[in-house]
Design goal:
Elements: H1 20-29, E1 35-36, H2 40-47, E2 55-60, E3 79-83, H3 89-100, E4 106-112, H4 119-130, E5 134-140, H5 146-155, E6 160-163, H6 167-171, H7 173-182, E7 187-189, H8 192-196, E8 201-204, H9 207-222, E9 239-243, H10 244-249, H11 256-259, E10 264-266
Parallel strand pairs: 1-2, 2-3, 4-5, 4-6, 6-7, 7-8, 9-10
Antiparallel strand pairs: 8-9
Amino acid sequence: MDDVNVDIVYRFAEGHLDRFPVLAADVVALKPDVILTTVTPAAVATKALTTSIPIVCPLLANAINLGLIASESRPGGNVTGVSFRTEGLTSKQVELALQMIPDVVKLGYLVNVASGIIIDRQELESTCQRLDIKAVPAEVRSANDLDMAFQSLAEDHVQAVIVLVDGMLFSERKRIAALAAAARLPAIYGFRDHVDAGGLVSYGVNLSENFHRAATYVNKILKGAKPGDLPVEFPAKLELVVNNLAAKALGLNIPPSVLVRADEVIE
């Protein structure tokens, strides 16, 4: 078509973090005007191969410590984007679990240790220590570990589970929701997409909004802006989504104090 002046090329890791270096090399070899990496580990893999091609990530995390940017206000290099977390978000998810299940003394959490991002884990463990709750980890490295992880959480008799934000865990959201339901474990997630897939409760950023914001970065860069001059944005709003159908299946009554704060309740 004569009116098409943008060529978009897609590469998918399908939740397998070990594919990022190969996919990144493939994309960088195409010498595009800008690269959109959907998650932070993909941005890390891509930046390792180029310091000149602009990289935009709608789900940045721990970007300074990972060497992706110099600062949020002035990234300084070839990476910029939108953060998917704010300080204290994981703590709020822990507190939400306590509001729904007041007698929690053991809180499990599902973490993909292959991602290399530990800031959420550190915040969760620190919060649990402050609240005198035992934090029980279920570590996975691939989707193949999920069944064993939930079996381990059930055997440890945790009373709720926090599913930490991660690309692979997001890709496996339907399976994770099913495993949590089968183990009769109330689970709290970071994205509403998990709740749409059958999960119980989510509290975090609106994923679609982050991607919409990332598109504005791409647009500015294509018009000549330098990524190093574009400050990293932070979520303007966090949303709480509750799945009452999942709650009823677990025999769990969501407290009115939680329901009244919910941006959406799925009945």
